[in-house]
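Duplicate of #3305? Posting structure anyway:
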């Protein structure tokens, strides 16, 4: 069984929660105008927590203590569909990452236990480029980042 993950920006937790009510999530035609990056299989809690630790230089245990890290803002269908928040610190780190640092981070991230043997650094770098772009545009609009998850 796979996991579908759509990363998106929204102006508030309440607005982001509405993505859980739309069949197909935030990228569905009926969703209320969310900007979405589809990253099938890259989950928002452990993997994005590791990414934040890599980009920020903050210990993973510190990242996981942030109340916004993986916080469920909506849970539907007995937990099969949910929307979780990403931290503002991750959004800032992604928005500020330089191209050279992005490629260094992609190599480090691809070597974490969750990716080991599953993804080449170049593929991970592509995901990072998309996430960084989303974070930059969200920052410009004063929006936060979220992940719609369907299991």
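Output from current build:
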């Amino acid at each position: 069984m796979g996991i579908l993950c759509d990363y998106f920006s929204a102006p508030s937790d309440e607005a982001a929660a509405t993505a859980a009510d739309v069949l197909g999530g935030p990228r569905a035609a009926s969703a209320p105008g969310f900007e979405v990056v589809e990253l099938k299989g890259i989950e928002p809690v452990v993997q994005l927590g590791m990414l934040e630790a890599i980009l920020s230089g903050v210990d993973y245990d510190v990242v996981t203590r942030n109340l916004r890290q993986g916080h469920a803002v909506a849970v539907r269908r007995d937990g099969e569909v949910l929307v979780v928040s990403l931290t503002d610190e991750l959004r800032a780190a992604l928005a500020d990452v330089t191209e050279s640092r992005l490629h260094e981070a992609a190599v480090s991230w691809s070597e974490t236990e969750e990716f080991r043997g599953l993804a080449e650094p170049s593929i991970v770098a592509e995901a990072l480029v998309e996430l960084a772009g989303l974070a930059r545009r969200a920052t410009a609009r004063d929006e936060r980042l979220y992940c719609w998850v369907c299991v």
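Confirmed duplicate; merging threads. The first strand starts at residue 4 and ends at 10. Residues 4-150 form a domain with the Hypothetical protein yfbM fold fold (CATH 3.40.1760).
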